[in-house]
Write a structure and sequence with these properties.
The complex is a heterodimer. Chain A is of the alpha/beta class. Helices cover 37% and strands 19% of the residues of chain A. Chain A has two domains: 3-195, Rossmann fold, CATH 3.40.50; 207-336, Rossmann fold. In chain A, the strands form three sheets. Chain A has a seven-stranded mixed sheet, with helices on both faces. Chain A has a five-stranded mixed sheet with strand order 9-11-10-13-14, with helices on both faces. A two-stranded antiparallel sheet of chain A has the order 1-8. In chain A, helix 11 links the parallel strand 13 and strand 14. The longest helix of chain A has 15 residues, at 19-33. Chain A starts with a helix and ends in a 7-residue tail after the last helix. The mean pLDDT of chain A is 95. By secondary structure, chain B is an alpha/beta fold. Chain B folds into two domains: 18-338, Rossmann fold (3-Layer(aba) Sandwich); 345-410, no CATH class. Helices cover 47% and strands 9% of the residues of chain B. Chain B contains 15 helices and nine strands. In chain B, the strands form two sheets. Chain B has a seven-stranded mixed sheet, with helices on both faces. A two-stranded antiparallel ribbon of chain B has the order 6-7. In chain B, strand 6 and strand 7 form a beta hairpin. In chain B, helix 1 crosses helix 2 (88-96), helix 1 runs parallel beside helix 13 and helix 2 runs parallel beside helix 10. Chain B starts with a strand and ends with a helix. Residues 1-21 and 387-411 of chain B have low confidence and may be disordered. The chains are: A alpha/beta, B alpha/beta. Chains A and B meet through helix 4, helix 5, helix 6, helix 10 and helix 11 of A and helix 7, helix 8 and helix 15 of B. Bound molecules: thiamine diphosphate and magnesium ion.
């Protein structure tokens, strides 16, 4: 098995793979590197997950390493905590964003707090994979952006890739981390393809995806590609936009974000989740506190409306779009234009 | 026989193949007055004289701990104390049936069991004194931090037991839970997971009849909490929770079953919460004195004493030695818990993550600057620079927080 895998790896080195496949490869490589890594959740076994992210893991690593659980998210989370207490490194899957809510008590009261409660003697190296976000035509409860709940829970790291390579490197880093990591996978990007690079910046570092001088678009996960598209479109309108991909919401990379905003003097924060009390509010506040003297205009946010996630036929009105981001950019007090 | 459901070894593995006896009368070796009921064979390990005497000593010491803690909460030396007075047969019997390598998942009510496990009383009471959330090293004692969100510890026990089994160890995980806690979703999920995985877990419900003010009848319509085991396809036992011999016996049996790979057990121990829920509660608002009197007559320590007397084991020397140990523990608690504990503000930021985030470093520095400014101001005051000193104090604190932000901005 290993031999075929290795040659397959080599042959595939320069081929494009999807983001879902990158997650799969990260899980495989982590399971190969450390036999304490176990993967479990609903339908992750024989089926390989509803998004095929865990495809073949049970076949290749056995049922003790990748297994289906009863349908009970609090139970999945709670048993992962117990396994981590015994020295395992569980990677659990919440089938969809909105179905992680039953696990929230375990996450907020135990996963996030155990290290602190026990003064560092019981760290919980658990990764919670959460496919999240909209734009896939999903009916209700299948398109939530739930990162805000986790972001405002101290003790958790909250990480979200926007590229194929980050899906791999961030997940490997998350599994190696001794802290619990909520790994938010933008399900809209599962099928996006790229050549995989297996090295990348650590958790906690943002990356400038596009250099620009006029304004900074701050995005993460599913909205990074929208931000990049916007930057391309903005060129025609005479704006040179910089795009920062946060990659990690907690820890937050003030340094990279502020360096960019101080350079451009303007910022727009973009996410799919509702704006009120959302992650973007925190980012806008941080940028305003730290970059006030460099700012030419108030920090703007382009987010989902403050509504329950809409049905598929209406979601296009809700999601941050290129046009809406362009409008926000245009409103940034360009006196000379 | 009161084992409600045990896997039928001769039949199919299907739940329907379980021998199910739905008689809810609890298993008992000591009758209400402490006479041996004769159910247990004479060679049962729980009846060995050494074991009985060890049990007695632990019961005397455990009760003394509880009484001392209740006194100290009245004196304001503990923030709160949920007493397990009257539940010692559960608290202690269950612990005596475990090995040191087994894991234990206690609730807020279970200080006596933790002390029985050997955890230092001061470390045991760290949570309830308000010094920190957990005062002992859970790995060293194989005892999770005391759990307050009801039943949320139960899935941890299921997961840990499953992990132990995967690792090939013969470790067992025992989780305590209250009768009220059995209504929580996590209780159900934990039992279901443990049964599906055949995890070596024991779920020990101390049915003390109340969840704060709410009586058992409002938690379940089932004739017995132990009946729930049937639905999960696991062994279920109902035991007299004021009979320390019976409790040890059923926990030991459950542990043996678990170690043999025969899966988890649900134990319902029928007992009574003699005190109010905590010192902050007034139990007279929801239950009457005659009920309390009835349970007082079934006191677990008195029953054990009667039994030991009948067996000729309870000599004056044994009683004196146990009391001495109990008083030594109480003296030690008074001395060490009477001291004002050292708390360190830097602990606020330690251990939130393996490495503090940049934001936490910033906040820790801001707090430190605030405190340093307070200290400076206090020194100024002492030097007689009153008004100016106080002004400095306020602006100093704000300035420090702002300074941290600006220092960052200057990067
Ligand atoms: C999830 C949750 N809900 C409510 C509470 C508040 N609370 C603390 S103890 C308690 C009663 C629990 O009763 P029971 O499970 O029977 O345990 P006992 O206190 O009798 O030992 C309640 C409602 C809590 N700690 N956790
Ligand atoms: Mg109770």
């Amino acid at each position: 098995m290993t031999a075929t895998l290795d040659s397959a790896h080599r042959a595939a080195q320069n081929a494009e793979i999807s983001l879902a496949q990158a997650v799969n490869r990260a899980l495989r490589d982590a399971m190969t590197a450390d036999d304490k890594v176990v993967v479990f959740g609903e339908d992750v076994g024989v089926l390989g997950g509803v998004f095929r992210v865990t495809d073949g893991l049970t076949r290749d690593f056995g049922e003790q390493r990748c297994f289906d659980t009863p349908l009970a998210e609090a139970g999945i989370m709670g048993t992962a905590i117990g396994m981590a207490m015994y020295g395992f490194r569980p990677v659990v899957e919440m089938q969809f964003d909105a179905f992680s809510y039953p696990a929230f008590e375990q996450i907020a009261s135990h996963l996030a707090k155990m290290r602190n409660r026990t003064r560092g003697t019981l760290p919980l190296p658990v990764v919670v994979r959460v496919p999240y976000g909209g734009g896939i035509g999903g009916v209700e409860h299948h398109s939530d952006s739930s990162e805000g709940y986790f972001v405002s829970t101290p003790g958790l790291h909250v990480v979200t890739p926007a590229t194929v390579s980050d899906a791999y490197t961030l997940l490997r880093a998350a599994i190696e981390s001794d802290d619990p990591v909520i790994f938010m996978e933008p399900k809209r990007l599962y099928w996006s393809k790229d050549v995989l690079s297996t090295t990348g910046p650590e958790i906690g570092r943002a990356v400038v995806r596009r250099q620009g001088s006029d304004a900074t678009l701050i995005a993460y996960g599913p909205t990074v590609s929208t931000a990049l598209e916007t930057a391309e479109a903005a060129r025609d309108e005479g704006y040179d936009l910089e795009v920062v991909d946060l990659r990690s919401i907690v820890p937050f990379d003030d340094e990279t974000v502020c360096a960019s905003v101080r350079k451009t003097g303007r910022a727009v924060v973009i996410h799919e989740a509702a704006g009120f009390g959302g992650t973007g509010a925190e980012i806008a506040a941080r940028v305003s506190e730290r970059c006030f003297h460099w700012l030419e205009a108030p920090v703007r946010r382009v987010t989902g409306f403050d509504i329950p996630y809409p049905p598929p036929k209406l979601e296009r009105h809700h999601l941050p779009s290129v046009d809406r981001i362009l409008d926000a950019v245009a409103s940034l007090q360009w006196e000379d234009r | 026989m009161t084992v409600l459901a045990t896997p039928d070894k001769t039949g199919s593995d299907f739940p329907l193949g379980f021998a199910t006896i739905l008689d809810p009368s609890p298993l008992q070796y000591l009758d209400e007055h402490g006479a041996l009921s004769g159910v247990l064979r004479d060679d049962a390990p729980e009846l060995a004289p050494e074991r009985l005497l060890g049990t007695y000593r632990a019961m005397v010491v455990g009760r003394r701990f509880d009484v001392q803690a209740t006194t100290m909460v009245r004196q304001g030396r503990l923030a709160v104390y949920p007493s397990s007075y009257g539940q010692e047969a559960c608290e202690i019997g269950a612990m005596l049936a475990l090995r040191p390598t087994d894991w234990f998942f206690p609730t807020y009510r279970d200080c006596v069991s933790m002390v029985t496990r050997g955890i230092d009383p001061v470390q045991t009471l760290t949570l309830l004194r308000g010094d920190w959330h957990c005062g002992y090293d859970p790995r060293r004692w194989r005892t999770a931090p005391q759990c307050t969100p009801l039943a949320t510890q139960a899935p941890h026990a299921a997961g840990l037991a499953h992990a132990a089994r995967l690792a090939g160890d013969d470790t067992v995980a025992l989780a305590f839970c209250g009768d009220g806690g059995t209504s929580e979703g996590d209780f159900h999920e934990a039992l279901n997971f443990a049964a599906v995985y055949q995890a070596p877990a024991i779920f020990f419900v101390q049915n003390n009849q109340y969840a704060i003010s709410v009586p058992l009848a409002k938690q379940t319509h089932a004739a017995a909490l132990a009946h729930k085991a049937v639905g999960y396809g696991m062994a279920g036992v109902r035991v007299d929770g004021n009979d320390v011999i019976a409790v040890q016996h059923v926990v030991a049996e459950a542990a043996t079953r678990a170690r043999a790979g025969d899966g988890p057990t649900l134990i319902e121990a029928v007992t009574y919460r003699m005190q109010a829920h905590t010192n902050a509660d007034d139990a007279t608002r929801y239950r009457n004195a005659s009920e309390v009197e009835y349970w007082k007559s079934r006191d677990p320590l008195a029953r054990l004493e009667t039994c030991l007397k009948a067996c000729g084991l309870l000599t004056d020397a044994v009683v004196a030695e146990a009391n001495q140990a109990a008083e030594a523990l109480a003296d030690d608690m008074r001395a060490r818990l009477g001291e004002e504990p050292e708390v360190d503000h830097r602990d606020l930021f330690r251990h939130v993550y393996a490495e503090p985030t940049p934001q936490l470093r910033e906040q820790a520095a801001a707090l430190q600057a605030e405190l340093d400014a307070d200290l400076d101001a206090a020194e100024h005051d002492e030097a007689g620079v009153e008004a100016a000193g106080r002004g400095l104090d306020a602006s100093g604190a704000d300035g420090a927080a702002l300074g941290a932000v600006e220092a960052e901005a200057g990067r």
